[in-house]
Specification:
Distance between the termini: 15 Å
Strand content: 15-25%
Radius of gyration: 16 Å
Order of helices and strands: EHHHEEHEHEHEH
Oligomer: single chain
Number of strands: 6
Number of helices: 7
CATH class: Alpha Beta
CATH superfamily: Isochorismatase-like
CATH topology: Rossmann fold
Helix content: 25-40%
Number of domains: 1
CATH architecture: 3-Layer(aba) Sandwich
Shape: globular
Structural class: alpha/beta
């Protein structure tokens, strides 16, 4: 087994209490679920086992040339200057224990595999197993899990390293993934006990 950890969308605009999306309830769910602590525990455990950490963040150029006016998910992004690359909004939240050697993948859609360097990176690292952590569970985590499964990766969702806009959204996403029985959903504490 050659695993890697994907830490997805833990950027300021999404998870910080002053972030443009974080203010809509995500930051509160991150805080109440102690998600930063869980993610950092996952990162530390992975580093101790020499498992690579890959950060994924959504971002657009200052002219938003990668943005699509046809997507409902990103409506308001351009006019509100959300997730603009090179700004505070697209920096990984300072509570996350990121290191300079960690890989960073920039995406312009929900799915971290779509039109990004992620597939090539994983192939070059000979990765066959992915641990997923992300915000939000019902968007990036679900999208990554389904795509990774179809690419024949073993997929493990670290449930307590994920959250959404509400506890209900998170629970529904986990239930939907669990019902498919295509991958494992674990509590981080189980993995840390190994």
């Amino acid at each position: 087994m050659r695993p890697a950890v994907l830490i997805m969308d833990f950027e300021n605009d999404v998870v910080h209490e002053k972030g443009k999306l974080g203010q809509m309830g995500v930051a509160k769910c991150v805080q109440e679920g102690h998600v930063f602590d869980h993610v950092n525990s996952l990162i530390r455990k992975a580093r101790a086992k020499n498992i690579p950490i890959i950060f994924v963040k959504v971002g657009f150029s200052s002219d938003y040339k990668e943005w699509s006016p046809h997507t409902r998910m990103f409506r308001g992004t351009k006019e509100n200057r959300m997730t603009e690359l090179g700004t505070w909004g697209t920096e990984i939240h300072s509570a996350i224990e990121m290191k300079p050697e960690d890989a960073i993948i920039i995406k312009h859609r929900i799915n971290p595999f779509y039109s990004t360097q992620l597939p090539v990176l994983l192939q070059s690292m000979e990765v066959d197993t992915l641990y997923l952590a992300g915000v939000s569970t019902n968007y990036v985590v679900q999208s990554a899990a389904r795509d990774a499964h179809d690419r024949d990766f073993n997929v493990i969702i670290a449930e307590d390293c994920c959250t959404s806009f509400s506890p209900e959204d998170h629970a529904n996403a986990i239930a939907a993934l669990n019902m498919l029985a295509l991958w494992d959903i674990i509590q981080l504490v189980m993995w840390l006990a190994e």
